[in-house]
Design brief:
- The relative contact order is 0.06.
- α10 runs antiparallel to α11 and α11 runs antiparallel to α12.
- The protein has 585 residues and is α+β, with helices and mostly antiparallel strands.
- Strands 3-2-1-6-5-4 form a 6-stranded antiparallel beta sheet, with helices on both faces. A 5-stranded antiparallel beta sheet has the order 8-7-11-10-9. It has a 5-stranded mixed beta sheet with strand order 13-15-16-18-17.
- The two termini are 41 Å apart.
- A hairpin with a 3-residue loop joins β15 and β16.
- Keywords: Cell membrane, Kinase, Membrane, Phosphoprotein, Transferase, Transmembrane, Transmembrane helix.
- It is a multi-pass membrane protein.
């Protein structure tokens, strides 16, 4: 089964193509959602405009009725016969009293019948201790109503007064004497059932309801859909200023209201939002179908993209990964005739061409390495051979046969190592032993004026394979170009360092006269062909190491802690062609 390569998923073509498709389809879905909300807002606004117009007309009509009642009420309060009864009742005979009371009763009945909103009309006459009613006729004096309406401040309560959740109109007739109760009070009581009928008439839907409220008098009247809890919730929403987000028992309502300053009252209609959205039900169904179709299209598109684009691309990526790991004998077997078939064909041809070029390049590099090694050997042998003969000659003159034997043995081992042509890579222990032997030979020449500190090679590094003749030429350069010129106190130090991914061999001397500019010049020439014998030898070693082990390996020059030149041989244990490895014991 194919797996995604170890890269960030957001960088894959598959994810980008799916995201691109989503970037195309999501705006369409969002546009549909916007159109739905826009349609709902328009429906709500159209409903509100129609309802507000109806509510305005309703309150204006109710105000006209109230004004008519007030006119009739004031006219009744000024009636001569009513005032006569209130003032001269004790001076009237029984016939006059009966005739006056009958007249007033007829006036009350006529006033009640003049408006459908009037439930009853009362006249509370204190002086005769009677209460006259259009519905109940003559009755005992209702002192509780008389005292209530007598104490009402119309400037605070407004035109309409709340009495036991009934709307009342009240007019008092003063006695003309200071601190004396009024002669009588004319009270008009509005019919709540008739008001409910009028509220039902403005309900546009079966689920809707209407309220007639007065925050000034705490009056509230609603249709059948208006429960006490709903009226209380409505008042609470008004107090909190949250009328347009009115919600009760988990149901949100669309509400429209209008307030009449003349009446000091407000009328409101409410409708569940689901009823407002009902005409959009089909739109919602189609929107969900469109969303489901879009989701299905995303799945189909994603599958098709993976099958026809991502999966073939992963085959190519996996082949490239194997090629990067050094496997060049892979071929992509396929029968495709599309663009990926062309890429697979070219990939196979590229690998064949690459193998051919690598074979040619490797053969050329190998020949160059061996040629450079031969050149390096030819440079070392004559120079060192002359000095060796001079040492033997001096020892022979001295007659020191034991040292001649020792020196001859070391010299034989030395030339046996540098002249053998069996293999180009040896154990680091052998390369180090050869270099140490070279320093021992040089000690016989410069033992009095050159001190050598040659550290022991760590055991973990002994079995590592390295190119032959990479350390001894560096030591020879130190003698030839620095230490031989020292009259006394010459120092040479060879040390070893090891890290997890790299080994370092360090050669330091205390040669005098080496400036920073000279070190920088040596660094630049290190990567150039030709030049002095000194740089040419180190350049050969540097190129051989870099050629085999890649970037990060080679020779690195710096100033030594001994104030001379520091040459550091770095060989990375990973990367390159991997020729640094432990020899099987």
């Amino acid at each position: 089964m194919l797996k995604f390569p170890a890269v960030s998923m957001r960088h894959t073509i598959f994810i980008r193509m799916v995201v691109t498709y989503l970037a195309i389809i999501l705006p369409i879905l969002l546009l549909g959602l916007y159109l739905y909300n826009w349609s709902y807002r328009n429906a709500s606004q159209d409903l509100s405009r129609a309802t507000l117009s109806q509510l305005t007309y309703y309150l204006e009509d109710l105000n006209r009725e109230v004004e008519w009642m007030e006119i009739q009420q004031y006219d009744l309060a000024q009636d001569t016969e009513l005032n006569k009864i209130a003032v001269t009742w004790n001076y009237m005979d029984d016939v006059q009293k009966r005739e006056s009371l009958n007249y007033i009763s007829q006036r009350l009945t006529s006033l009640k019948n003049s408006s459908a909103y009037i439930g009853d009309v009362f006249v509370h006459i204190r002086t005769i201790n009677k209460t006259l009613s259009a519905m109940n006729g003559i009755d005992d004096f209702d002192s509780s109503k008389f005292n209530f309406f007598r104490s009402v401040d119309l400037r605070k309560e407004g035109r309409l007064i709340n009495w036991n959740n009934f709307l009342e109109l009240s007019v008092t007739q003063s006695s003309g004497r200071r601190n004396e109760p009024p002669l009588f009070i004319v009270q008009i009581e509005l019919d709540n059932e008739k008001l409910k009928d009028s509220l039902r008439a403005i309900n546009a839907y079966e689920e809707s309801g209407s309220l007639l409220v007065s925050r000034l008098t705490d009056y509230a009247l609603g249709t059948e859909n208006s429960s006490p809890e709903m009226i209380e919730s409505y008042h609470q929403a008004i107090d909190e200023g949250n009328l347009y987000n009115w919600e009760l028992d988990g149901i949100r309502y669309h509400i429209d209201s209008f307030t009449s300053d003349k009446l000091g009252m407000a009328v409101a209609t409410y409708l569940p939002e689901k009823a407002v959205k009902r005409p959009l039900t089909k739109f919602v169904v189609w929107a969900w179908l469109f969303a489901a179709a879009s989701f299905l299209a995303v799945l189909i598109y994603s599958y098709a993209t993976y099958k026809f684009v991502q999966k073939p691309l992963l085959v190519l990526i996996r082949s490239f990964k194997r090629m990067e790991s050094g496997s060049l004998d892979i071929q992509i077997d396929h029968a495709r005739k599309d663009e990926f078939g062309y890429l697979y064909l070219r990939f196979n041809q590229m690998l064949s061409r690459l193998r051919m070029l690598i074979d040619q390049d490797y053969t050329q590099k190998l020949m160059m390495q061996r040629a450079e090694l031969k050149q390096l050997q030819s440079q070392i042998n004559p120079h060192f051979l002359y000095n060796s003969f001079f040492i033997l000659s001096a020892l022979a003159k001295q007659g020191d046969s034991s040292r001649i034997e020792e020196f001859s043995g070391m010299l034989g081992e030395y030339f046996r190592f540098i002249t053998r042509n069996g293999e180009d890579n040896v154990r680091l222990a052998e390369e180090t032993r050869h270099s140490r032997m070279y320093t021992e030979i040089q000690k016989m020449r410069f033992s009095r004026r050159i001190q050598v500190q040659f550290d022991e090679l760590p055991e973990d590094m002994e079995e590592l394979r390295v190119p032959r003749l990479i350390l001894q030429p560096i030591i020879e350069n130190a003698y030839e170009h620095c230490l031989e010129k020292q009259a006394e106190d010459g120092e040479l130090r060879v040390s070893f360092e090891q890290e997890k991914r790299e080994i370092r061999i360090i050669v330091e001397d205390n040669g005098s006269g080496l400036t920073d500019e000279r070190i920088e010049t040596l660094r630049r020439r290190l990567n150039q062909n030709g030049g002095t014998h000194e740089v040419t030898g180190m350049s050969n070693i540097h190129r051989r190491i870099q050629l085999i082990y890649g970037e990060g390996s080679g020779l690195f020059l710096d100033r030594s802690m001994l104030n001379g030149l520091r040459v550091e041989i770095r060989i990375r244990l990973t990367g390159g062609e991997g020729l640094v490895q432990t020899i099987d014991r």
